[in-house]
Design goal:
mainly alpha; 3 helices; 2 strands; membrane
């Protein structure tokens, strides 16, 4: 049994390969993760430059490091999802489902950590001298 979806449009039959869709989705998510990683690297640079003068130095440093580590773990899970697992093969479907659930949980954690980072971040123009 194939897991491809075949919608009938007029007289043409088109097939949607679910594995190809999942691979493209994983790549697109990876590109967004690169943007977030770049933002975290910039925040880390700022916090390290300001140093202990930053009101929440230790908290910010910890949160940014946790975010970067979670993003690295997510990247590994996405690589596994995008290159190793084929959801069209029945033997890979259980592993792919578990990896997909893990990526969702990691993404939620990353969002929560980055909300906290932004809540405690002091902008350069808000510095009080």
């Amino acid at each position: 049994m194939s897991s491809a979806i075949s919608p009938i449009v007029g007289s043409d039959t088109k097939t949607l390969d679910a594995n190809r869709y999942a691979t493209k989705k994983t790549i697109a998510q990876g590109l967004l993760d690169v943007a977030l990683l770049t933002a975290n690297a910039s925040q880390l640079k700022y916090v390290l430059q300001v140093g202990k003068q930053h009101e929440f130095y230790t908290l910010m440093l910890s949160l940014i490091i946790v975010s970067i580590v979670l993003q690295a773990v997510l990247a590994i899970v996405c690589i596994i999802l995008g290159s190793t697992l084929n959801i069209n093969k029945e033997k890979d479907q259980d592993s792919a489902d578990k990896a997909n659930n893990a990526s969702l949980i990691i993404n939620v954690l990353i969002v929560i950590v980055n909300i906290l980072i932004n809540a405690f971040q002091i902008k350069a123009d808000d510095d009080r001298s």
